Amino acid sequence: MKKISILSVFVMLLSALSLQLKAQEITKKNGYTLSFESNFKALDPQLKKRLIKTFFEVYPKLAKEYNPSTIKEVKFFVDTAYKGVAATADGKVTFSSVWMVKHPEDIDVVTHEVMHIVQDYGRSVGPGWLTEGIADYARYKFGVDNAGAKWSLPALKSEHSYKNSYRITAAFFAWIEKSVKPGTIKAVDAALRDHTYTKEIWTKLTGKDLDALWADYAKNSEV
């Protein structure tokens, strides 16, 4: 009886491991590894392929541009219990299954989220609006199908501020790159990562502080 019991336990463990391996798909390409998991049984296989493809298209570019030392192994998890859009922590991106169903065209949510991995600011000395603004700027610059998702930088409105974060801040950064000094956002990103960022960096890089830059942007915000 004891031998049968041990054998039964072994078979169950083997079955459980087999199921786990089936739920986890690991893809390796050009030195990067993506582990894809989902507890959403209705996930469209084509959408899954697009998410994986987008990772391997944008992550190496983001790494090369901003942080060549970024981690090489990333995890994706489509979660039915997650109620937001997507969130990133410790090299793992969690996507909302609800968002995937409602916005299957929003492939570049991947671009924004994996930029957070590349950023790797740790206990950042910078404000949250700056972190999110840079991530959306990266989406604007490196996104594979922003048009398909009907995602674009917003037109400037009088009530906007560079502290609004996300696309509003990203539009301001795009303007700085085009009209003030190319490479500014990359330099700010690097300062955030090595914890040397202060608000004075903007003056050092461009000759003007953020408020003065925003005032100029308000006069002619064309990107």
Give a concise summary.
With 223 residues, the protein is α/β, with parallel strands linked by helices. The chain has helices spanning 2-23, 45-66, 97-102, 109-119, 128-142, 166-180, 184-193, 201-206, 210-219; strands at 24-29, 32-38, 73-79, 86-89, 92-96. β1 (24-29) and β2 form a beta hairpin.
Question: Topology of this structure?
Answer:
Blueprint: H1 2-23, E1 24-29, E2 32-38, H2 45-66, E3 73-79, E4 86-89, E5 92-96, H3 97-102, H4 109-119, H5 128-142, H6 166-180, H7 184-193, H8 201-206, H9 210-219
Parallel strand pairs: 2-3, 3-5
Antiparallel strand pairs: 1-2, 4-5
Annotation keywords:
223 residues, alpha/beta, 5-stranded mixed β-sheet
In whole angstroms, the N-to-C terminal distance is 76 Å
If you compute it from the alpha carbons, what radius of gyration comes out, rounded to the nearest whole angstrom?
21 Å
Helix content: 40-55%
- The overall pLDDT, averaged over residues, is 92
The parts where pLDDT drops under 50 for at least 5 residues are 7-22
Main beta-sheet strand count, sense and barrel state = 5 strands, mixed
Description:
There is one protein chain. The protein is of the alpha/beta class. The protein is 52% helix and 13% strand. The protein has nine helices and five strands. It has helices at residues 2-23, 45-66, 97-102, 109-119, 128-142, 166-180, 184-193, 201-206, 210-219; strands at 24-29, 32-38, 73-79, 86-89, 92-96. A five-stranded mixed β-sheet has the order 1-2-3-5-4. It is globular, with a radius of gyration of 21 Å.
